[in-house]
Amino acid sequence: MSASSVLDLTSRVHGALRIAAAAVDAATGPEPPALPDLPGIGPLVASKVLGETCLLLRAAHRAAVLGDDAVLRAAVSALARTVAPHVRSTDLLASLCVRPDTALDEGFGHLHLRDLGLPDPTVDDLLDRVVPAEGHPGLERTPTRALEQLWLRFLWTGAAPSTLPVETALLASSVIGRPLDPVTCSLLELYSFTHIVMYASDSGRRVTTLPRPVDNVLADAETALAVALDSGNLDLAAEALWTWPMLGATPSAIARFAWRLLAAAQDETGLVVGPQFSTETHAALGSESGEAYLLATSYHSSIVMGILCACTLAAEADREADRPSPGEDDAPRAQTVAALRLLVEAVAGQPVGRWLRAFDRLGPSSQAELAPLLLRIALRRAAERDDVAAVRRALELAVEHDLLDNPVVPHAAAFLRSRVGLAHALEQRRADQPGDTSAASAAAAAARATQLGAVP
Known about the structure:
Blueprint: H1 3-28, H2 46-66, H3 70-87, H4 90-98, H5 103-106, H6 108-115, H7 121-130, H8 143-157, H9 163-173, H10 187-201, H11 214-231, H12 234-241, H13 243-246, H14 253-269, H15 279-284, H16 287-315, H17 334-347, H18 354-360, H19 364-369, H20 371-384, H21 388-400, H22 408-432, H23 437-453
Helix pairs in contact: 1-2, 1-3, 1-16, 2-3, 2-6, 2-16, 8-9, 8-10, 11-12, 11-20, 12-14, 12-16, 17-20, 17-21, 20-21, 20-22, 21-22, 22-23
């Protein structure tokens, strides 16, 4: 990693620590800052802010230790000592005893600070007394939440070998155990994916046996990036990007493109704005309300960016910052044409996002590397509009320009098959009900769908 890259990443981690400190102050202070009365915008939740800050602190501490950065270590220590009284309060001690099944959840902040070298024997002793033994049935949890519990138990005890078969089974049954559907995957699935990467790898500290090859998991991370970039969700983009450092992988062309886009967006405001942030709303507010609004909507995304940068520092301390993946420089020139044509198909009649403007500024070879990203975005957009013709056209381009290994292709083909099935069903209904004008109209539409959707 070059010196300039280290300085840039370190500066962003420091910025995230400052934003986290402001969020902690706003969430725990006697008088929360006045927020505008807007739908979905409420005061900061102290437990959430403190837990996320502790995640950042642990990631930044590791980066400081591995990079022998005394300044960063001091910044981490200062904020950790500010946070400690809040995550080890008398109220916390009481909450640990309310329901033992959630004791590790309640002790989240304590466990992270302890790993930084800030122990609290009183909390440790109480956890020893109340946490159920390993194998206790406990609460019913989704695979994602069950993996989080294994991770927290690992932080608490150092993990026991007997937990590994359980982890393997949970990973296999989770969203990471099967390919994401790039056409229909939901935000919930995508966020679960990014969280599982963090839990299973302990933010890059340990190697775990994934249920699928790492390259397949990284392809799913690229799917998450495609959705995030096209929707302008910088928070999801940052979480998807941490897949590479946490799994010890060299960033792909799509990941490097997304990183540059994210960094440029952060440089505009000093924060990574969250999905709820509106530039127009922020501009219409006064200075005090505007600052409170910016913090409330964007502190989380900024903390995630800090975690990403800290994990990247730790994972790539001795690696060239922009070293290409094998074979990237040999991308066929024909992919350039495919990328540009897919681009036209993808954005026709739709708003142009930040990612597209950044793409347009790239040279031909860099654009060619991003053809798989454009294919993902084109097909997802077309499917969301139920535009069978656009899906078919994108698949034709994939065939023409040798992009069939893109994981979105089989899912898009399944989308077409489902529409053909619908067409046949509507045709059958028209035949059964010949006098039904609505059935006749549906049959006409079905015939058109069959014509467009039939895979050659």
